[in-house]
């Protein structure tokens, strides 16, 4: 699919000059110009509702005004733009705000590390640290996990197509079944523990387990509280470090700042990126328990760890977390979304998955992509999830208002209607 | 942690909250606020000359006014901030300008790939592509090379301390001696070719070779033109792809936009990052010959590939390359720098290395760090290079004027004088 | 080192000169001189019943007279002793006999490969061939599998202690749960198939699966017929090669020449060693389907592939398989053994496992080793199985007569009685 | 080449039933029956002089009478044939004789380990032990080295064709240039030491180096004494263990029992196999310094470590080393051989290599195989060496008499003459 029949030349520069690796431009074949809150406009003036949020980097919506004001002011005052890991005022303000607003109220005691400004870089740093701290090499990951595209992160990612892209075998990891993978009657933790304890299983004691509490790319499978707590206990009993990759699920996506808050867990290492920068600006954090801070200076580094525009926006974004109003609003909108999706499932079949403002509906293979394409034509930016793209994934900015949510859901409903009618009802599960 | 005697509490937030992995803050223990061109100011108003350029990300200086103007305007107009690999006006403008200003005049026919916005991500994508295109796994790299800190990039990096940080063995690579590594009388290419052609050498045919034409982190060793051309021929004869990592040496650092231009080479893949974003904003490119564009859509991806603020600044930065004035000015300032460094070597000993505005002076072990620390106290931001930090590395913004260059060099000279006097002349090579 | 209280100096040469790696000498601390059939004598004239069979290499008993006669004759006539893979009369006779007596009557069409004369070498050759034939790298193996101690074979072995001995990570393999591993209610095949078919499981399509139909070292777990057939079908559907390691279970140990005969399977590759040489002489075979015979000459080799004394004995040993009398006798003695073990379990607790003349009784941790030590004192050579040595493993020569079997079993019974009485009944499961 | 034009059906069983992997049968296409000393006979009564010695396993010639007598007697007395690592009288006698005759007179203090009965198994055990003892993973090996075909041994072997057969990447090793590899003017030790000491070379400190003092399969390159001693010193300075693979070069092949004796070295680990069994019977030893004997019982094992027929012959074979007559005779015959080969080189071109009774002549590519084929037709069994089979390798039994040596050399001379005449003198270097 290259979309050129719709594009009629307007995407020619991209089609000619850019590598075939480009992908979202194929799902959303238009040229964007402007955006605000949960709305986007292309160069032809067509308006879109955004149920995509820049793949999770725009939890606070497009171009939130107060952040914008501060960014402009910072630029006008010739604030330092790029500083690696030197000290700057902007970075200091972010650190202080992060401590006051996020860590202290939650009773969390983490040291903060600034890796290169992508989720994959945060994951790479977390894996290195876990291996260094334990002196072990193997890291456990889960079926359908997604943690990034650099070799270390790819090695803990489940998607075979993406793994194959490595061009080399990916080692030092072992994949275990995520919660629910073996059906509702099998607790995969039992199996995992057997493997770890059995001296004949071939698996040496891992350095760490890395997981998402809800699999954003892997089909919106959510781990249950008991399973997560059980896993945390298992890790503690065996001296295995727990790494939560909250790159997509953190920053409020599931209703709390960290996705693991409702479960009474305290991971050893947490990866943050995407919406941490507030304004969609590249930034990433790795949080680590103080006793794990065994790094030598410069043992993991990178150039763009001091993106001060991101620090400015990120510090401001934390204002949303100064009290519980934002979290409560996400919860309400999450229920509104749940209800609408259940109604869709009732009407068209499918399975509703996820939590907070990361929910979706799993459809028969091939269907979800058609639904998203139809929705895009009607002015809704929405993508699929799952290794077989089988889930329609609803991920609006957290700041969306209930009306905007309804507006997008109405487009989704009519798009499903259209696709289903075109295919015949029998195609729906 | 050193430097605390100067810091007197002003860096307390960083020392308390940030991981021990932080490093530049230890060499430059102050809190920066503002910067312009080749000058920086800390929160106490102290002024610094910048011979560091954000580790090469600020070739066009701090906050260049025209880029700043365009960034503010883009923010004010609610331009799309973050777009992954969707089409935007800002990205289109960058692509067009890159084609017109850089590729076409040099007769280069590359497809453009946007990896995650760091040099390491570009290197990871280049390695993946080379392995995919050839169906082979081994990549050749060189002694003292530096290509990044994620597992794939680390595997082609020579520094043992950084490699050890991986926590796992690094495979699928083979290290060969860089030009000059075996002394002036041995052409390392002969040895490399023997190894490749001998059916008993244990090395299977590599997918690619990756190299810097001048080793920025590895001690400013510069490969000669004949060696580079010989390596290119060797690659052609054996069907090995050539990847030039121009992350630090590109964007004019050595005098031409690409560091390899003077040598009549045309690498199969080129990695760019650091100064490509113009304003120190995170961005990276991977350039590839059209026949290598075998990617499947999404086979390598990442969230922050659509940093539109970077696209806005990057497009404007290319104005410097519309004619040959900028290149000529770099050449003149490079000669000015060479002459000053040779005079230093004449006075204090040491070996002058590098080319363009990436030059330095190699000193006895332990000395270069002292010189840089003394210079910082006198208001010069400058770092070392080399796996044993044995080189004082002069890397000012390319836009520095001759007076600024002289100002910084005078500080460097007096700093060396001070260190040498403190140690006694015998310590100098 | 234990057992020295019995040894009283007679093992001094071994204790002084031999490496600590020696092991069976610790379980059977005497110096053997002579053996015949199922009886052994040490240098002090003490007689032992053999329920160990040289770890499976002596299925035809010690020094069977007709083989002995032929070996002496071959030596007297200056027959070629060592011939690598040159043609010799002795090797030709073996090949012809193996075709006539084993392959043809079973309708099996295999090419015969002679690897180095150990089971591990056969396994290494099988893995190489499977990878070459499929162009894939991953090999599936099972929990508690044992396939050998060289790096390739060790990588498909489950025992963590033995794996750790590698000193390097073991790659290109994935361990799956053997039949029964997840309890009686979970069919592990379902789980395996999920993993193979799910595009998000992280496991690329394997080249092959390697398995024992009954795990000789791994605790005498026997796979069921339906599970084995299901696995064979799964392999066929996915184009995965099936390698049966019959090194210990072949040559009649479970009642048929190949252990897989009762299940209607036809593996792609079969590994044989141990008793294939007839007289305990080093020899190994790798059988492969003709369409897999993609080897280049010499692509896998080794010096001792032409042990002609072994060929002489091996050819003669096949006489046992010229009709079904031998198989029927094994079956009868297998039932006799089953019945005796069930009676022991009834009396002392424990779980009876295995089939044919490879059966045992699983006891509480720590007990089996005590039982075997007590039995040795009473004149029975018998060892444990299982990664925690939890199984008493009864593996007499297949030629043992019912009286000999009873004699050994009586010693076993009284040894269990003694151990149990010493420990108190509560220690028994 | 399959030789069937000469074989006229007599090798049909092998061609039909045996895998394509067979190789020596293609070079020596006849069916052997009988052998004695340095002579062999095929089933048609044709006599051959043996310059091949079973690839080095028959240093004491075929069927030496005293060993034969003892083997027959052992069989007649029902001596234990197969005993794993239990104690037997035959094994004890071997150990005592090895201590008295070999270790003590040379002042060598080694513990003796019995790995599986092949050279590859000994190498695998040596690599495991070196990694365990140092806690490091990388092992250094050399260009054109050959150490065996199992995955661990293959990883330190240089031959690309054989490495490719692994079907998986071979890791944890690094190949360095052997003595002479970079031409006579470059001391490869300097290069190796640079790599080890340079913190930017990408190579972490190795566990061990493994080497042959003369490369038997790799083209008869001999390392010089100064180079070997320099390597030993380098290892000592860096805490790297030295493993000498004396599988082919040991047992007197180069004139002394161990090949390294003339150089005043004392390797940490020594691998022996091939002729150690005396009569061509499968056997292998790994010798290790007592302080390295860190094995847990059974940490490396295998079934055929107790081949008592081999122990009987091996103990007797050591009689050759009770005084210095045997060594002196080898030296004399080595000179006789050298002189003859130099005369051949003088007449036909080529380079004479090797020492003791392991010498050869390197010819133009393609020539050596033709010479060996012509020699075989004339009744001389002789093979090539070198990854491109470029060397005619003369390796007679050490017990050959001067007349036998002359007889074989005369056949070699006339074979070269024939080949050269057929090709024209220009083909000779």
From TrEMBL, chains A, B, C, D:
<dbReference type="InterPro" id="IPR005814">
    <property type="entry name" value="Aminotrans_3"/>
</dbReference>
<keyword id="KW-0808">Transferase</keyword>
<keyword id="KW-0663">Pyridoxal phosphate</keyword>
<dbReference type="GO" id="GO:0047307">
    <property type="term" value="F:diaminobutyrate-pyruvate transaminase activity"/>
</dbReference>
<dbReference type="InterPro" id="IPR049704">
    <property type="entry name" value="Aminotrans_3_PPA_site"/>
</dbReference>
<dbReference type="InterPro" id="IPR015421">
    <property type="entry name" value="PyrdxlP-dep_Trfase_major"/>
</dbReference>
<comment type="pathway">
    <text>Amine and polyamine biosynthesis; ectoine biosynthesis; L-ectoine from L-aspartate 4-semialdehyde: step 1/3.</text>
</comment>
<dbReference type="InterPro" id="IPR015424">
    <property type="entry name" value="PyrdxlP-dep_Trfase"/>
</dbReference>
<dbReference type="InterPro" id="IPR012773">
    <property type="entry name" value="Ectoine_EctB"/>
</dbReference>
<dbReference type="InterPro" id="IPR015422">
    <property type="entry name" value="PyrdxlP-dep_Trfase_small"/>
</dbReference>
<keyword id="KW-0032">Aminotransferase</keyword>
<dbReference type="GO" id="GO:0045303">
    <property type="term" value="F:diaminobutyrate-2-oxoglutarate transaminase activity"/>
</dbReference>
<comment type="similarity">
    <text>Belongs to the class-III pyridoxal-phosphate-dependent aminotransferase family.</text>
</comment>
<dbReference type="InterPro" id="IPR004637">
    <property type="entry name" value="Dat"/>
</dbReference>
<dbReference type="Pfam" id="PF00202">
    <property type="entry name" value="Aminotran_3"/>
</dbReference>
<protein>
    <recommendedName>
        <fullName>Diaminobutyrate--2-oxoglutarate transaminase</fullName>
        <ecNumber>2.6.1.76</ecNumber>
    </recommendedName>
</protein>
<dbReference type="GO" id="GO:0019491">
    <property type="term" value="P:ectoine biosynthetic process"/>
</dbReference>
<dbReference type="GO" id="GO:0030170">
    <property type="term" value="F:pyridoxal phosphate binding"/>
</dbReference>
């Amino acid at each position: 699919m290259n979309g050129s029949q719709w594009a009629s030349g307007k995407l020619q520069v991209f089609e000619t000059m850019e590598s075939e690796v480009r992908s979202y431009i194929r799902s959303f074949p238009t040229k964007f110009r402007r955006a605000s809150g949960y709305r986007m406009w292309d160069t032809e003036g067509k308006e879109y509702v955004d149920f995509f949020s820049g793949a999770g980097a725009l939890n606070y919506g497009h171009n939130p005004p107060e952040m914008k004001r501060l960014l402009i002011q910072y630029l006008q005052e010739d604030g330092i733009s790029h500083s690696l890991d030197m000290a700057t005022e902007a970075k200091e303000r972010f650190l202080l705000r992060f401590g006051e607003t996020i860590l202290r109220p939650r009773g969390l005691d983490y040291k903060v590390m600034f890796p290169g400004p992508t989720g994959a870089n945060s994951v790479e740093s977390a894996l290195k640290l876990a291996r260094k701290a334990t002196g072990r090499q193997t890291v456990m990951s889960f079926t359908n996990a997604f943690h990034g595209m650099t070799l270390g992160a790819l090695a803990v990612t489940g998607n075979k197509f993406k793994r194959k892209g490595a061009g080399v075998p990916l080692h030092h990891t072992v994949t275990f079944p995520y919660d629910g993978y073996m059906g509702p009657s099998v607790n995969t933790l039992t199996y995992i523990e057997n493997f770890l304890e059995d001296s004949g299983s071939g698996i040496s004691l891992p350095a760490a387990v890395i997981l998402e509490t809800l699999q954003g790319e892997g089909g919106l499978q959510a781990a249950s509280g008991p399973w997560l707590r059980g896993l945390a206990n298992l890790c503690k009993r065996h001296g295995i470090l727990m790494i939560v990759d909250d790159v997509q699920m953190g920053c409020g996506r599931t209703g709390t700042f960290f996705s693991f808050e409702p479960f009474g867990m305290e991971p050893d290492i947490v990866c943050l990126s995407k919406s941490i920068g507030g304004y969609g600006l590249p930034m990433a954090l790795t949080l680590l328990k103080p006793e794990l801070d065994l790094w030598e200076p410069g043992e993991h580094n990178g150039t763009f760890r001091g993106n001060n525009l991101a620090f400015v926006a990120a510090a401001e974004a934390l204002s949303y977390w100064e009290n519980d109003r934002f979290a409560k609003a996400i919860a309400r909108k999450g229920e509104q979304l749940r209800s609408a999706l259940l109604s869709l499932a009732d009407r068209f079949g499918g399975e509703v998955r996820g939590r907070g403002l990361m929910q979706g509906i799993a459809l028969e293979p091939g269907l979800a992509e058609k639904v998203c394409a139809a929705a895009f034509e009607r002015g809704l930016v929405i993508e699929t999830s799952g290794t077989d793209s089988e889930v329609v994934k609803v991920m609006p900015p957290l700041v969306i208002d209930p009306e905007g949510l309804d507006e997008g859901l109405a487009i989704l409903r009519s798009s499903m209607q259209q696709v289903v009618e075109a295919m015949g009802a029998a195609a729906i599960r």
